[in-house]
Specification:
Elements (H helix, E strand, L loop, with lengths): L3 E3 L6 E3 L3 E3 L1 H4 L12 H19 L4 H22 L5 E3 L15 E2 L27 H14 L35 E5 L3 H7 L4 H5 L24 H7 L3 H4 L4 E5 L4 E5 L17 E2 L7 E2 L12 H4 L14 H7 L9 E9 L2 E3 L2 E3 L6 E9 L6 H32 L5 H26 L4 H23 L7
Antiparallel strand pairs: 1-4, 2-3, 5-8, 6-11, 7-8, 9-10, 11-14, 12-13
Length: 475
């Protein structure tokens, strides 16, 4: 087959302010600031970029990471891409991250693989939900998303099995990075894309220390050596590596002109078995089984910040942990940067009888929280101040909910919807001020500095109560 559409040179990766670029441009242009696309596409592509960097130049330890530097990483990756150019053809005899052997599987329309597109007898509400033909750039991006964020359900053709003795159920399992309801993923981001990739590059000693989840270390990149099936020596070793959480190979697929041959691929253990993506937050000590932070459009990621940063609390060893954030915060990586961002994103999904889909209340979620001069403050004091501020906001929220409910109860009316709407508005107003909360908690005398903000938040409560509980009549 003809090798065509090389991902190094073709323009397929959405980038803010630039349109689409190729992989080589990502590691050549230091002026690129951030990835574009929807939140799931951003996570999937960022994981791919991390997988390329970890393959090209994983340092031994933190000293090796510092010696490598952002520019050293860039040069090492470009040298790697030049020497492995033949691994990045989207079409050909060795198509990128694809399994030609899976062509026996039924072919699905590309719209069936896109979570925001309505297919079959699903109602089309807006034009964006309509299926449209995809060009090669869109197919490449869809391929990357399917490796980690494939929807569970019966769209996969699991009658095709590549490994002798391996059995598949009729219903495909959700992607490793998606899970049952949609995991929330968090990364530290810096002013440029190259710096963001560099600060999230981990040495071998850190990877081996991620709760013992990756005994095989970094692992071999799948574009260099794909497994022959669902269960063989390569697949078993791959599942034990950090690479499997960057490119999970949850689907075996093969791109054709008008659709994709599509079947369930590798299945990795999940958080209930004490395994997770480094970018998700899990409480492994929770009973009766571990808990994870899910994506929730009604509970924005900034409200989960104390859980995402729970590793900063030296007084509590039993709490949520996000290895991606902990590895960056626990080292001196950010000392050279006056500011950085915690970027959290995900998608909330619904399930019924194993079939995953987006309902009217499901949505993508994306959030940025900026830290200024963080390393000039004491991390324990910062965390305690932030935890205290969030507890105060929760207390105000409960008071508002209780008062609105009581008002309508006295009128012999069910006030749950009114109370829920009131608290939703309260959190929306608080979100606009939350950056100020973080800034104050990072500085000295946080408790005193928060008092003016508390007065402002209390004014929100009084105003929202008056709007939801009219007092214009004698009644």
């Amino acid at each position: 087959m003809e090798n065509r559409y090389n991902l190094l040179d073709e323009q397929w990766i959405p980038v803010v302010g630039e349109g689409k670029v190729g992989l080589r441009r990502i590691f050549t242009d230091a002026g690129l600031t951030a990835l574009g696309g929807n939140p799931i596409e951003k996570i999937a592509v960022f994981k791919l970029l991390l997988a390329i960097v970890q393959t090209a130049c994983t340092p031994e330890d933190e000293d090796g990471w510092k010696a490598l530097g952002c520019d050293g990483m860039r040069k090492a990756v470009l040298a790697y891409l030049d020497s492995h150019r033949d691994c990045f053809w989207l079409y050909g005899d060795r198509p990128f991250l694809q399994m030609p052997e899976i062509q026996k599987a039924n072919k699905q329309h590309y719209g069936a693989l896109k979570m925001e597109v309505a297919v079959g007898n699903t109602t089309v509400v807006t034009q964006i939900q309509s299926e449209t033909p995809l060009d090669d750039a869109e197919k490449a991006l869809l391929l990357i998303v399917q490796m980690n964020f494939a929807f569970g359900g019966k769209k996969v053709d699991n009658s095709i099995v590549l490994s002798d003795g391996y059995e598949k159920s009729k219903t495909g399992k959700p992607g490793t990075s998606l899970g049952f309801m949609g995991f929330l993923h968090s990364f530290v981001m810096l002013p440029t894309l190259l710096e963001s990739i560099y600060v999230n590059l981990f040495p071998k000693e850190s990877i081996l220390g991620f709760g013992g989840m990756f005994p095989a270390g970094v692992g071999t990149a799948p574009w260099e050596k794909m497994p022959a099936g669902e269960k063989d020596r390569v697949a078993d070793m791959y599942k034990k590596s950090y690479m499997s959480r960057l490119i999970s190979l949850n689907r075996f697929l093969y791109l054709s002109e008008d659709g994709a041959h599509y079947s369930e691929g590798l299945q990795l253990p999940d958080y209930a078995e004490s395994y997770c993506d480094a970018s998700t937050a899990v409480d492994f000590y929770a009973k009766p089984k571990p808990k994870v932070i899910w994506t929730n459009p009604e509970r924005r990621p900034w409200r989960q910040l104390t859980s995402l940063l729970a590793f900063l609390d030296g007084k509590n060893s039993s709490s949520f942990i996000c290895y991606q954030l902990k590895a960056v915060f626990s080292s001196a990586r950010l000392n050279a940067y006056p500011s950085f961002i915690i970027w959290s994103a995900g998608v909330k999904v619904s399930s019924n009888a194993g079939e995953q889909y987006l309902t009217g209340t499901d949505d993508f979620v994306e959030s940025e929280i900026q830290f200024q001069d963080y390393f000039r403050c004491d991390s324990q004091n910062f965390y305690e101040s932030l935890e205290s501020a969030m507890a105060e906001l929760e207390r105000m929220n409960k008071v508002l909910y209780a008062c609105v409910s009581s008002y309508y109860k006295n009128l012999k009316v069910d006030g749950k919807s009114f109370a829920s709407n009131a608290t939703s508005v309260f959190w929306q107003l608080c979100e606009h001020e939350f950056q100020h909360v973080v800034d104050i908690c990072s500085g000295p005398d946080a408790q005193e500095g928060l008092q003016p903000l508390y007065r402002k938040f209390r004014s929100f409560v009084n105003r929202i109560y008056d709007e939801n509980c009219p007092k214009d009549t004698a009644r």
